[in-house]
Fold Alpha-1,4 glucan phosphorylase.
Amino acid sequence: MKNFLHQNFLHQITHNFLKQHDDRIGLTLEAIKDGFLDYLFFNRGTYPDQATDQDIYQALAMTIRDRLVQRWLHTYKKATMEKDTRVVIYLSAEYLMGPQLGHNIVNLGVREVVEKAMNDLGIDLQSVLDAEVEPGLANGGLGNVAASYLDGLSSLEVPAIGYGIRYEFGLFRQSFSNGWQIEETDKWLQFGFPWEIQQFDRAVEIKFGGSTQRVKDESGNEKVNWIPSEEIKGIPYDVFVPGYKVNTVNTLRLWKAEAIDSFNFQSFNVGDYYGAVDKKVSSENITKVLYPNDESIEGKILRLKQQYFFVSCALQDCVNFFLESGGNILDFHEKFVVQLNDTHPTIAIPELMRILVDEQGVAWDEAWHITQKTFGYTQHTLLPEALEKWPVGLLGQILPRHMEIIYDINYKFLNLAREHFPNHQEIIRTLSLIDETGEKYVRMANLACAGSFSINGVANLQTELLKSYTLKDFYSIFPEKFNNKTNGIAPRRWLMLINNRLTQLLDDTIGTGWEKDLDQLKSLEPFAENQDFVNKWKAVKKEIKNDLAQRIFEQQRVKVDPNSMFDILVKRIHEYKRQHLKVLHIISLYRKIKDNPNESYVPRTFIFGGKAAPGYRMAKLIIKLINSVAEVINNDSSINDLIKVVFIPNYNVRNSQWIYPAADLSEQISTAGKEASGTGNMKFSVNGALTVGTYDGANIEIREEVGSDNFFLFGLKADEVKSLKESGYNPYTYYQENESLRKAIDMINHGYFSPNERDLFRPLTDHLLYYDEYMVMADFTDYVRAQEEAEQLWSQSDAWAKASILNTARMGKFSSDRTVREYLRDIWKADAVEINIKDTLH
């Protein structure tokens, strides 16, 4: 009775508190201004006229955060914690969240109100947004998908929790020195992160190393105890993920590693100051850096510990929450569906088995049934080298119990496989979770396929290649598991937030509603024939390009012409993404202008962006080549500024929001069959860029949607690449037969772009001439042809604008909301739960 009265008393106080503070957390102009000024004075300790940019940003961020907290608590209480709701759990090593302030303002639906509030106080909202430091939680497309799907789940009002790592430092900040990439520490947390709440009471313990011991329990059944050599804590930090104009605010729970005993007083007392904090340092290293360099054995150990750390934290958290709410562990898969975002979280499969069998006493077969009904697996790559493998010895050293479980899973799985493939020992070897062709490795993709009820690719072509090539033997056993879920992007961030001018034009022309139903953009199509609208479209595009040109000049002192074609290639630097194919085209065009100065040319600005992995030497050489070519071309007065080359350093979400809206031509030129999907291609197209691309990934589906006349296709198809390689591909013959290509490579080899070090780029050109596994030489001629087609259309200003309009109008399919709906329908089987914030915490 006392507890009942106590709970009612607390509920009444909570009710009264929220009622009294409705104005404080309201969305009116005055409420937001008052909240901002309160935080500026009481939290930042300053007056408006003395506030720094960081003071202003933090005060506005906390003002917006207050509005999210109420909705977040309601979502957790009324949706996530309810016994009858199914919760989507997303496990990902990356979350490309991007700057949060602008995104949260947009999703709350208060952009105009906040902008007016700031204007009334003499503050430019864009300058406040520019003061935010981007979260260092991701590198590229994998993290973009994770962030977009969390946004989509919240916008569709579906209960969800994303789990990941709270990296203290991001991948790295990129700068250039003499054209070479320099990696600097990404100190994204240096000013704090106002969008998180630390949850000490939800901490869990994580084990590493040691040995296992088989004992008998009280009933005489055999039980396995894991006796670790190291134990640490995982501390959760909850980040708010609001849906668009709904009250649902889901959770991204990020985990930080800490020592259980972070300070040894005895060591400190005898002068061993380093020893006193040794456990603290070694523990916290696990969550220090996104993707630590794994060329060394120490780096490999750290990466494996990272992966296990966050999935163990996540699964322990889910089990604890489920049992605390009165759930039966045998129904775990009914409450949670867990999506593995690529192979990084795959160790979650043996971890759930360990928890169920060793800690919860579930029989093996029942535990395996629960596990297989819990996990869905998204396979993002087709590259064999990207299918993650861990040495058996290393995995057994760090996770001895998991290695035992993997062997047990493999034994039972191969028995099943032999029923499908009797007398096919080679197929059995391919299917095995253990690669025994040399040093023994655990194949994480195989483990994910065996332990999941669903296996999906991320574009139609990629899924078909998974079924026919990469995972063909698994498809033979489990065809019912395989399905496609073409990637999508969040229209709130990648159109509304980053392209306010175009958003306003869309709203004025076709009304609102497309923000949550991107198919409504189709109603824009008839306006492509309306000259008045075409003129407005061109004017908006020109303003956006002026903005980017101004930023380029301010940051790099390179003057680019906004009237020129902005031809943009921004993505991770990798040979298969073929930035060097673009460079060869630029050099050939430059050579052509030099040789024939009196001909007519389309003015073009070539813009690059992207980071090379610290240990990827060839990618770094490609960056150096781009910067060296830019240095020569941008300072050659003889070409009359007809072409300019710019490499924007430290490409990230914050920089990309100026790039995507300004693009005229989007470069999606990866070797066919190598790009799983791509999401940059979608971001460009929805903002009105035309694409020059290969028949690869989601390019295929984009071309089908926008129309072949509005897409510049080139290059070998995936089957043609395979056929040419099998017949004996000789890249040197293309060098001999194509004069333009030969001149471009000769200019590089003769030191035209490296006069002080003639052979600097020889490793790159030799690789192209004699190996060229990514078919740069074979595709060059057709690539130039596609570029010439683009120039012909560009010369017809209205025709280009019409194609641009149709690209935006026909991109409805590529909303992450559509992808999430398909996941919900086919895999997750979770329903929306409407959140009413008037229903306080009773």
In short: The two ends are 17 Å apart (CA to CA). The first strand starts at residue 87 and ends at 91. Residues 1-5 have pLDDT under 50 and may be disordered. Residues 82-99+134-486 form a domain with the Rossmann fold fold (CATH 3.40.50.2000).
